[in-house]
């Protein structure tokens, strides 16, 4: 365990916590992170980094070269965007932007990477280059793809790239990672059933009842994972929305009803199976009711797959900071989605989870109105980044 590094970063914590709370109070939705990006760029320049702004619209990249020989380069990535959630934390630094909130800890992610940049700018005892990547729009608005399309890795070459996400349910300072599929493809789907409406009391027999049809479909969906996906694989299909009819006219049977939700998978084969079976069930059931079905299946992301070599390196870096007993290198896969997956399709790398669930952190989970990032976790996240740089670029010569 590297108490010396942690203590040096704890000495920086008041300054970094103030930055984190400022970002928290001024959340910005994906692709609108103008203020946050400007703050990040200002801090990086003040610490002597070379800064490039507007990479993928509001992305920022800070470049730092070590003073030792070496041509190796790695990328460290943090996300900056907030969510459309009304904050209910009651904190003095709560959101001043109505309807927007840092409910996923991206304010903490940004701050921890800034902390690492500050520390390393003052302690350049490494060889090669660190690219500090501050990404916009992780929450479903295409930030990773936008940065890649803007030439991220062509303009800022790296041999490997690493990402991190906080986990409020994990103890403070604990890390979790695994090689291979680690996070799911976060697909979305909508099925629209169309039939013949009518009077629900006087002439129900003249209607093709799409409400019963959608109910049958929802029940049938449960068989896709249980009977079409192998038990050793993981998948989730959930219904999140149903729309049809009117409570102002409950005696009217609607002619159209929509049902939608999410589908999560870790492999292309399982993804294909879910889309195919969902379409077959919707269209088959619709035909049996004398109705039609329109299926829209949107592949919104891609599974996050950690590379074996970089996963081992990431686990080793975390262990050097907090001790091997605080690092789980076979953590279970998570069905949440993460667009860092697109970067891992382009470059070797690894994504790690970091616990922050003690020492005053909220017990609430991510994406909830009462979630708040635990500032006591800042030294651990910054320390992980520093340890990774020291391990990967510790004077290695080309």
Describe this structure in words.
With 398 residues, the protein is of the alpha/beta class. It is elongated, with a radius of gyration of 24 Å. The longest helix has 23 residues, at 3-25. The strands form 4 sheets. An 8-stranded mixed sheet has the order 1-2-4-3-5-16-6-15, sandwiched between helices. The protein has helices spanning 3-25, 34-46, 106-122, 143-149, 152-155, 210-228, 268-288, 308-322, 340-346, 378-392; strands at 50-55, 59-65, 68-79, 127-135, 160-167, 175-176, 180-183, 185-194, 198-199, 235-243, 252-253, 256-265, 292-298, 304-306, 327-328, 349-355. It is built from 10 helices and 16 strands. Strand 1 and strand 2 (59-65) form a beta hairpin.
Any chance you could write out the topology, listing elements then pairs?
Blueprint: H1 3-25, H2 34-46, E1 50-55, E2 59-65, E3 68-79, H3 106-122, E4 127-135, H4 143-149, H5 152-155, E5 160-167, E6 175-176, E7 180-183, E8 185-194, E9 198-199, H6 210-228, E10 235-243, E11 252-253, E12 256-265, H7 268-288, E13 292-298, E14 304-306, H8 308-322, E15 327-328, H9 340-346, E16 349-355, H10 378-392
Parallel strand pairs: 3-4, 3-5, 5-16, 6-15
Antiparallel strand pairs: 1-2, 2-4, 6-16, 7-14, 8-12, 8-13, 9-11, 10-12
Helix pairs in contact: 1-3, 1-10, 3-10, 6-7, 8-10
Task: Identify the notable features of this structure and list them briefly.
single chain; 398 residues; alpha/beta; four-stranded antiparallel β-sheet; 10 helices
What is the structure about, briefly put?
The chain has about 400 residues and is α/β, with parallel strands linked by helices.
């Amino acid at each position: 365990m590297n108490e010396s590094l942690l203590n040096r970063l704890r000495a920086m914590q008041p300054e970094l916590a103030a930055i984190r709370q400022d970002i928290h109070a001024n959340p910005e939705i994906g692709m609108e992170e103008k203020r946050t990006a400007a703050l990040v760029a200002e801090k990086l320049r003040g610490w002597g980094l070379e800064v490039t702004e507007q990479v993928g619209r509001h992305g920022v990249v800070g470049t730092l070269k070590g003073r030792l020989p070496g041509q190796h380069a790695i990328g460290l990535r943090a996300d900056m965007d907030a969510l459309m959630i009304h904050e209910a934390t009651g904190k003095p630094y709560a959101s001043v932007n109505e309807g927007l909130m840092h409910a996923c800890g991206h304010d903490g992610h940004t701050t921890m990477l800034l902390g690492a940049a500050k520390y390393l700018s003052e302690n350049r005892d490494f060889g090669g280059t660190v690219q500090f990547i501050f990404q916009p729009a992780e929450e479903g608005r295409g930030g990773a793809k936008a940065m890649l399309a803007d030439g991220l890795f062509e303009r800022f070459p790296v041999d490997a790239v690493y990402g991190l996400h906080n986990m409020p349910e994990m103890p403070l300072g604990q890390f979790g990672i695994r090689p291979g599929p680690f996070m799911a493809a976060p697909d979305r789907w909508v099925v629209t059933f169309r039939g013949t409406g009518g009077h629900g009391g006087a002439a129900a027999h003249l209607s093709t009842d799409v409400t019963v049809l959608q109910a049958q479909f929802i029940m049938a969906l449960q068989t896709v994972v249980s009977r079409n996906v192998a038990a050793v694989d993981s998948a989730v299909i959930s219904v999140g929305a149903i729309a049809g009819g009117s409570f102002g006219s409950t005696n009217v049977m609607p002619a159209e009803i929509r049902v939608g939700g999410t589908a999560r998978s870790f492999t292309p084969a399982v993804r294909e199976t879910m889309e195919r079976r969902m379409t077959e069930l919707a269209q088959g059931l619709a035909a049996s009711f004398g109705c039609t079905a329109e299926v829209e299946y949107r592949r919104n992301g891609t599974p996050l797959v950690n590379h074996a070599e970089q996963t081992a390196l990431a686990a080793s870096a975390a262990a050097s900071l907090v001790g091997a007993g605080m690092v789980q290198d076979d953590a279970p896969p998570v069905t949440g989605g993460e667009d860092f997956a697109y970067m891992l399709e382009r470059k070797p790398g690894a994504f790690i989870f970091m616990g922050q669930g003690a020492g005053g952190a909220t017990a609430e989970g991510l994406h909830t109105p009462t979630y708040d990032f635990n500032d006591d976790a800042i030294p651990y996240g910054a320390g992980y980044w520093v340890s990774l740089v020291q391990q990967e670029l510790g004077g290695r010569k080309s």
